[in-house]
């Protein structure tokens, strides 16, 4: 097991490093060799998770597999942290620095699809599926972490590599709880990875903050024709809240977004409903701006309850800060992207991509052959739950080229390719870029210091605070009923693989 180094031991490690380097070895070469000899293992991990196709907070089989794989590679693995049974937190090494790899493995509802088939052909009608390709993250993150471990052992590099698989990213859920529970308090830097159709990184604000809550109004039922004056209409309160926010929209920041759905709207017209519910998402370019709008939304709920004589309660669903990429770490990642390059696609793979694009009615561009250059991307108005990490730890962002250009996620078509040779080749490239970037952060005090300086500048004017209400807890039963409905039929497609690193 790796141990922390004192001054004398650190000097010996440096001597070992110089000796190894003079022999033509370096940490990245060792990491790349580890990835090359484990490409089949990496593919089996990703493919196994694809067929598990588990929704957020129900990633039990996926978490079990990742624990087994990581432990076979020498990692210590904790399941269930921060009140989430499927949270995976793995580590190897000791002392400083601590570098974290951050990602997710959850699937999406009704995303079931037969792999490599262009027509909509679910494996199981109505079942979940990986129509964003999060299954590939499991293979990339674990294999890159193992490769980093191999390099750290070979060169006696001090520090700790951490792998964090947060549950329920699709529900914008877990990372704020992990941050609140202190999991990232000792982390010196992090890299967040995600599937894409190219290798890329970026810096600055990448997406929006979000707060999601359900407002349930409680009134008193009565007969709509005989004694409606005795009723207190909870759905009237829902409608008044909706109208009230519409009247507020003119006075909000131009960057805001807010959308809702009425989830409880009464039983039938002649019964005064005693329960009504409206589910809101509030978003903005910054965490404080989203909180400001959300607080106004709560005041509107107060007014709606006052006007209708009802009461209400609020069920917190999720929250997140905008994801912020560190420019210094992005520069380091870009150098590794340029060094590793993109996969060497075969003629058959390019034809497959073009045929797929033709079948979807989009431009037939094939597969990307040059990486995206470094630059500040426009801020997206979408949200994920990684942002809270980036406001607490200097964090780099990266995508790896494992999907077909033009095929949009959150659609069954995106579930066609996540077990294909295109995905597997892209995963190998992603693992190399990720491992090399983690090693850069692990071995360069100057890079970490510059990244921390950038982080301090980025957060100087806006200080992090949690958007979680104090009483908020993760919902371990989220999506349980859906998975219990489909899991027996889905289990017939499990690969029953037990991959181990070599």
Q: Can you walk me through this structure?
A:
The chain has helices at residues 7-22, 27-36, 39-52, 60-72, 135-155, 174-180, 234-248, 287-308, 327-340, 347-359, 387-390, 421-443, 445-458, 480-490; strands at residues 76-79, 88-94, 98-103, 159-165, 189-196, 200-202, 204-205, 209-218, 257-264, 275-284, 311-320, 324-325, 395-401. It has 502 residues and is of the alpha+beta class. It folds into two domains: 26-206 and 322-462, Zn peptidases (Aminopeptidase, 3-Layer(aba) Sandwich); 209-320, 2-Layer Sandwich (Alpha-Beta Plaits), CATH 3.30.70. The strands form three sheets. The chain has a seven-stranded mixed sheet with strand order 1-2-4-3-5-13-6. A four-stranded antiparallel sheet has the order 9-10-8-11. A hairpin with an 8-residue loop joins β1 and β2 (88-94). It is globular. Residues 1-16 have low confidence and may be disordered.
Key phrases:
502 residues; 17% strand; Aminopeptidase; alpha+beta; 2 domains; disordered N terminus; 13 strands; 39% helix; Alpha-Beta Plaits; seven-stranded mixed beta sheet
Blueprint (SSEs and pairs):
Layout: H1 7-22, H2 27-36, H3 39-52, H4 60-72, E1 76-79, E2 88-94, E3 98-103, H5 135-155, E4 159-165, H6 174-180, E5 189-196, E6 200-202, E7 204-205, E8 209-218, H7 234-248, E9 257-264, E10 275-284, H8 287-308, E11 311-320, E12 324-325, H9 327-340, H10 347-359, H11 387-390, E13 395-401, H12 421-443, H13 445-458, H14 480-490
Parallel strand pairs: 3-4, 3-5, 5-13
Antiparallel strand pairs: 1-2, 2-4, 6-13, 7-12, 8-10, 8-11, 9-10
């Amino acid at each position: 097991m790796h141990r922390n180094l004192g001054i004398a031991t650190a000097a010996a490690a440096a001597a070992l490093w110089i000796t190894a380097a003079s022999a033509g070895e370096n940490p990245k070469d060792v990491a790349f060799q580890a990835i090359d000899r484990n490409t089949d293992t990496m593919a089996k991990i990703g493919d196994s998770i694809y067929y598990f196709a588990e929704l957020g907070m129900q990633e039990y089989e996926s978490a079990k597999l990742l624990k087994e794989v990581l432990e076979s590679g020498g990692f210590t693995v904790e399941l269930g942290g921060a009140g989430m049974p499927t949270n995976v937190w793995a580590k190897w090494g000791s002392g400083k620095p601590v570098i974290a790899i951050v990602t997710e493995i959850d699937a999406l509802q009704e995303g079931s699809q037969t792999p490599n088939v262009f027509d909509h052909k679910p494996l199981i009608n109505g079942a979940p599926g990986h129509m964003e390709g999060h299954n590939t993250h499991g293979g990339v993150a674990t294999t890159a972490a193992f490769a980093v471990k191999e390099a750290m052992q070979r060169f006696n590099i001090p520090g700790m590599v951490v792998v964090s698989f947060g549950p329920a990213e699709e529900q914008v859920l877990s990372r704020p709880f992990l941050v609140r529970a202190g999991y990232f308090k000792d982390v010196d830097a992090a890299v967040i990875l995600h599937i894409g159709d190219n290798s890329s990184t970026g810096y600055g604000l990448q997406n929006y903050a979000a707060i999601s809550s359900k407002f349930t109004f409680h009134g008193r039922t009565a007969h709509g024709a005989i004694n409606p004056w005795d009723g207190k209409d909870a759905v009237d309160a829902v409608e008044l809240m909706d109208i009230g926010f519409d009247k507020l929209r003119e006075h909000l920041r131009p960057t805001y977004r807010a959308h809702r759905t009425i989830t409880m709207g009464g039983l039938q017209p002649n019964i005064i409903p005693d329960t009504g519910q409206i589910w809101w998402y509030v978003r903005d370019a910054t965490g404080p701006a989203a909180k400001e709008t959300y607080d106004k939304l709560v005041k509107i709920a107060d007014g709606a309850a006052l006007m209708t004589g009802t009461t209400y309660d609020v069920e917190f669903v999720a929250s997140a800060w905008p994801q912020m990429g560190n420019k210094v770490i992005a520069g380091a990642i870009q150098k590794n992207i340029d060094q590793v390059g993109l996969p060497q696609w075969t003629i058959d793979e390019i034809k497959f991509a073009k045929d797929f694009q033709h079948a979807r009615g989009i431009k037939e561009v094939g597969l990307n052959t040059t990486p995206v250059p470094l630059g500040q991307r426009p801020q997206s108005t979408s949200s994920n739950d990684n942002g809270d990490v980036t406001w607490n730890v200097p964090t780099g962002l990266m995508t790896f080229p494992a999907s077909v250009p033009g095929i949009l996620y959150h659609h069954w078509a995106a579930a066609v390719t996540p077990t294909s040779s295109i995905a597997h080749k892209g995963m190998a490239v992603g693992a190399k870029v990720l491992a090399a970037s983690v090693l850069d952060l692990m071995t360069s005090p100057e890079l970490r210091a510059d990244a921390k300086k950038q982080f301090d500048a980025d957060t100087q004017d806006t200080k992090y605070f949690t958007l979680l209400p104090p009483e908020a807890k993760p919902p371990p039963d989220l999506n349980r009923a859906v998975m219990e409905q489909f899991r027996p039929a889905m289990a017939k497609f499990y690969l029953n693989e037990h991959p181990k690193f070599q």
